[in-house]
Amino acid sequence: MLWTGRELLVLGATWELATAGGGLQGVAYDPGANRWRRLAPSPQSPQLADRHLLDRTTVWAGSRMLVFNYWSRSARDPHIVSQTGMTVEPDGCEVWAYDPATDRWTTLPPPSSQARALLARASLVWDGSDVVVVANRNVIPPELQPFAGRYDPDHARWTPIGAPRQLAASLTWTGGALVADSSDAYGPETRRWLPLPKPPKAAGAQQGWIGREQAILRWDSPASGTIYVLVPAKR
User: Fold this and answer.
1) Considering only 56-60, 153-157, 187-191, which range has the smallest mean pLDDT?
2) Could you tell me the pTM of the whole model?
């Protein structure tokens, strides 16, 4: 599900769609009008015997929804449960874009093999101009190293950027900065990572970050019920 600022987009695929072309079905809910509408049919992947859909990643990109469809020549093992959603490396990726204003789908250029490998298991956030990608990759298994980059979906262009200092499990967009977990923030204008100040107290058993306009809300464990607000200073 994705929030566009006006509607809630809900996507899904039946078993028949997932195995025969990988198409999507979707609906949109407008809370202001209390009304549902059905989305136009999505594109279809070529129906080839050696092509298997592995996983999908969706991201809201300002005025449209981007859908990354990863496929492989090797079928996914249904008996293996993976947190990444993929148990084999993808051999290809198709990128679809949906514009809710016109109810139209378009097919974008596929990412290069290098960009595809980096996008496949990363957290994706739109920063107003590009998809910012942050993930952890194996250098010498089981050693992990964080990496980051910017991806232009219209031109299939990958640009590496400096990585956060620590391994990142999640991304939060505040409207002005990108937060990787609770250690570093990335500013699109300066294109630099800056360390976040330490929270007022030790983190609780559970914690998280929520972006709200230019501020970042941090909540501790339900037992404490404490919320901290970080407002990035203007530079």
Assistant:
1) 187-191
2) 0.75
